[in-house]
Amino acid sequence: MPAYEIEDLNSAVKRVLAGDSARSVSDSTPIPYRTLTKWVAKGEMGIFRAPVRHGPAPLPSQPAEACLVEWIVGRQLVGHPASRKEIIFKAGTMSSMATGQTVGGGWYRRFMGRHPMLATRTSQAVCKARNAVTKSDLEQFFSSLIKAVVENRLDASRVFNMDETAFQTNKGSKRVVVV
User: Fold this and answer.
1) Do both 100 and 137 map to the same domain?
2) How far from the centroid of its chain's Cα atoms is residue 5's Cα?
3) What is the pLDDT along the chain (179 residues), one digit of tens a residue?
4) Residue limits of the HTH CENPB-type domain (predicted)?
5) Domain total for the chain?
Protein backbone atom coordinates (compact mmCIF):
# COMPACT_ATOMS: atom_id res chain seq x y z
CA MET A 1 0.00 0.00 0.00
CA PRO A 2 1.54 3.34 -1.00
CA ALA A 3 2.14 6.02 1.63
CA TYR A 4 0.05 8.54 -0.32
CA GLU A 5 -3.55 8.92 -1.38
CA ILE A 6 -4.71 8.70 -4.99
CA GLU A 7 -6.04 12.26 -4.76
CA ASP A 8 -2.51 13.42 -3.76
CA LEU A 9 -1.04 11.63 -6.79
CA ASN A 10 -3.57 13.20 -9.17
CA SER A 11 -3.03 16.69 -7.75
CA ALA A 12 0.77 16.24 -8.02
CA VAL A 13 0.41 15.13 -11.66
CA LYS A 14 -1.74 18.19 -12.38
CA ARG A 15 0.90 20.43 -10.75
CA VAL A 16 3.60 18.96 -13.03
CA LEU A 17 1.35 19.32 -16.07
CA ALA A 18 0.74 22.95 -15.05
CA GLY A 19 4.46 23.68 -15.22
CA ASP A 20 6.12 22.71 -11.91
CA SER A 21 9.16 20.46 -12.16
CA ALA A 22 8.61 16.80 -11.39
CA ARG A 23 11.62 16.74 -9.04
CA SER A 24 10.36 19.65 -6.87
CA VAL A 25 6.84 18.19 -6.72
CA SER A 26 8.28 14.79 -5.78
CA ASP A 27 10.40 16.36 -3.04
CA SER A 28 7.42 18.25 -1.57
CA THR A 29 5.10 15.21 -1.59
CA PRO A 30 5.50 11.58 -0.45
CA ILE A 31 5.21 10.42 -4.09
CA PRO A 32 8.41 8.87 -5.53
CA TYR A 33 9.91 10.66 -8.54
CA ARG A 34 9.67 7.61 -10.84
CA THR A 35 6.02 7.03 -9.96
CA LEU A 36 5.26 10.69 -10.55
CA THR A 37 6.95 10.74 -13.98
CA LYS A 38 5.11 7.56 -14.99
CA TRP A 39 1.73 9.09 -14.11
CA VAL A 40 2.64 12.45 -15.68
CA ALA A 41 3.22 10.61 -18.98
CA LYS A 42 -0.20 8.98 -18.63
CA GLY A 43 -1.70 12.31 -17.57
CA GLU A 44 -0.51 13.89 -20.80
CA MET A 45 -2.68 11.31 -22.60
CA GLY A 46 -5.62 12.18 -20.33
CA ILE A 47 -5.33 9.10 -18.11
CA PHE A 48 -5.56 9.76 -14.38
CA ARG A 49 -5.67 7.22 -11.59
CA ALA A 50 -9.16 6.67 -10.26
CA PRO A 51 -9.94 5.66 -6.67
CA VAL A 52 -10.31 1.89 -6.48
CA ARG A 53 -12.65 -0.01 -4.19
CA HIS A 54 -10.80 -2.92 -2.61
CA GLY A 55 -12.29 -6.40 -2.65
CA PRO A 56 -14.82 -7.95 -4.98
CA ALA A 57 -17.48 -5.81 -6.58
CA PRO A 58 -20.89 -5.81 -4.87
CA LEU A 59 -23.13 -8.57 -6.19
CA PRO A 60 -25.84 -6.38 -7.63
CA SER A 61 -23.98 -3.90 -9.83
CA GLN A 62 -24.09 -0.16 -9.15
CA PRO A 63 -26.92 0.43 -11.66
CA ALA A 64 -28.86 -2.44 -10.06
CA GLU A 65 -28.30 -0.92 -6.61
CA ALA A 66 -29.49 2.45 -7.94
CA CYS A 67 -32.68 0.75 -9.18
CA LEU A 68 -33.07 -0.89 -5.77
CA VAL A 69 -32.77 2.51 -4.03
CA GLU A 70 -35.42 3.90 -6.42
CA TRP A 71 -37.65 0.92 -5.57
CA ILE A 72 -37.22 1.61 -1.83
CA VAL A 73 -38.07 5.30 -2.32
CA GLY A 74 -41.07 4.39 -4.49
CA ARG A 75 -42.38 1.98 -1.87
CA GLN A 76 -42.10 4.74 0.73
CA LEU A 77 -43.92 7.26 -1.48
CA VAL A 78 -46.94 4.98 -1.94
CA GLY A 79 -47.14 4.34 1.81
CA HIS A 80 -45.60 0.86 1.98
CA PRO A 81 -41.96 1.25 3.12
CA ALA A 82 -39.74 -1.77 2.59
CA SER A 83 -38.34 -3.81 5.46
CA ARG A 84 -34.85 -5.29 5.72
CA LYS A 85 -36.17 -8.72 4.77
CA GLU A 86 -37.96 -7.39 1.67
CA ILE A 87 -34.86 -5.48 0.52
CA ILE A 88 -32.64 -8.55 0.91
CA PHE A 89 -35.20 -10.68 -0.94
CA LYS A 90 -35.50 -8.15 -3.80
CA ALA A 91 -31.71 -7.72 -4.08
CA GLY A 92 -31.23 -11.49 -3.95
CA THR A 93 -33.75 -11.95 -6.76
CA MET A 94 -32.04 -9.29 -8.88
CA SER A 95 -28.60 -10.75 -8.15
CA SER A 96 -29.60 -14.35 -8.82
CA MET A 97 -31.03 -13.39 -12.22
CA ALA A 98 -27.78 -11.65 -13.18
CA THR A 99 -25.08 -13.78 -11.53
CA GLY A 100 -26.73 -16.83 -10.02
CA GLN A 101 -25.69 -15.78 -6.50
CA THR A 102 -27.84 -14.33 -3.74
CA VAL A 103 -27.11 -11.73 -1.06
CA GLY A 104 -27.31 -11.87 2.73
CA GLY A 105 -27.17 -9.80 5.89
CA GLY A 106 -23.58 -8.69 5.33
CA TRP A 107 -24.51 -7.32 1.93
CA TYR A 108 -27.42 -5.41 3.51
CA ARG A 109 -25.11 -3.78 6.09
CA ARG A 110 -22.65 -2.71 3.39
CA PHE A 111 -25.53 -1.54 1.13
CA MET A 112 -26.82 0.72 3.90
CA GLY A 113 -23.26 2.06 4.34
CA ARG A 114 -22.97 2.79 0.60
CA HIS A 115 -26.30 4.65 0.65
CA PRO A 116 -26.32 6.93 3.72
CA MET A 117 -29.52 8.63 2.54
CA LEU A 118 -31.39 5.46 3.60
CA ALA A 119 -32.15 4.95 7.28
CA THR A 120 -33.94 2.35 9.37
CA ARG A 121 -36.97 3.53 11.33
CA THR A 122 -39.85 1.96 13.23
CA SER A 123 -43.03 2.24 11.18
CA GLN A 124 -46.18 3.74 12.60
CA ALA A 125 -49.25 1.63 12.02
CA VAL A 126 -52.19 3.42 10.40
CA CYS A 127 -55.14 1.39 9.19
CA LYS A 128 -56.10 1.67 5.53
CA ALA A 129 -59.47 3.31 6.23
CA ARG A 130 -57.89 5.93 8.48
CA ASN A 131 -55.15 6.61 5.96
CA ALA A 132 -57.70 7.26 3.18
CA VAL A 133 -59.82 9.87 5.00
CA THR A 134 -60.51 13.02 2.96
CA LYS A 135 -61.88 16.45 3.86
CA SER A 136 -65.30 15.62 2.42
CA ASP A 137 -65.42 12.41 4.51
CA LEU A 138 -64.78 14.44 7.67
CA GLU A 139 -67.39 17.07 6.73
CA GLN A 140 -69.97 14.33 6.12
CA PHE A 141 -69.11 12.63 9.43
CA PHE A 142 -69.45 15.82 11.49
CA SER A 143 -72.68 16.88 9.75
CA SER A 144 -74.21 13.46 10.48
CA LEU A 145 -72.95 13.71 14.07
CA ILE A 146 -74.58 17.14 14.51
CA LYS A 147 -77.79 15.82 12.97
CA ALA A 148 -77.84 12.87 15.41
CA VAL A 149 -77.24 15.16 18.42
CA VAL A 150 -80.04 17.55 17.38
CA GLU A 151 -82.56 14.81 16.45
CA ASN A 152 -82.03 12.84 19.65
CA ARG A 153 -81.87 15.98 21.84
CA LEU A 154 -78.57 14.92 23.41
CA ASP A 155 -77.02 17.18 26.06
CA ALA A 156 -73.45 17.63 27.29
CA SER A 157 -73.87 14.94 29.95
CA ARG A 158 -73.72 12.35 27.14
CA VAL A 159 -70.21 13.46 25.99
CA PHE A 160 -67.40 11.16 27.06
CA ASN A 161 -63.68 11.73 26.77
CA MET A 162 -62.07 8.85 24.92
CA ASP A 163 -58.37 8.53 24.26
CA GLU A 164 -57.45 6.35 21.30
CA THR A 165 -53.73 7.07 21.25
CA ALA A 166 -52.93 3.73 22.88
CA PHE A 167 -55.02 1.78 20.38
CA GLN A 168 -52.85 -0.28 18.02
CA THR A 169 -54.26 -1.57 14.77
CA ASN A 170 -51.68 -4.34 14.49
CA LYS A 171 -49.48 -6.19 16.92
CA GLY A 172 -45.84 -5.27 17.26
CA SER A 173 -43.78 -2.78 15.34
CA LYS A 174 -42.04 -3.18 12.02
CA ARG A 175 -38.61 -1.78 11.20
CA VAL A 176 -38.56 -0.21 7.74
CA VAL A 177 -36.01 1.56 5.54
CA VAL A 178 -36.85 5.14 4.59
CA VAL A 179 -35.20 8.15 2.98
Assistant:
1) no
2) 28
3) 568 888 888 999 999 999 999 999 999 999 999 999 999 999 888 888 877 777 777 778 888 899 999 999 998 888 788 899 999 999 999 888 888 888 888 899 999 998 999 998 887 766 666 667 778 888 898 899 889 888 988 887 776 666 555 444 555 457 888 87
4) 52-121
5) 3
Question: CA quadruple 88, 91, 97, 99: dihedral positive or negative?
Answer: negative
In a domain? residue 148: yes
pTM of the model: 0.50
> Of 174, 171, 149, 179, nearest to 72 (Cα)?
179
8: phi then psi, degrees, rounded to nearest 5? -65, -40
Whether residues 30 and 70 share a domain: the answer is no
Say yes or no: 115 and 86 in one domain: yes
Pairing of strands 119-122, 82-83: unpaired
**Co-location of 116 and 99 in the same domain:** yes
Domain around 100: 62-122
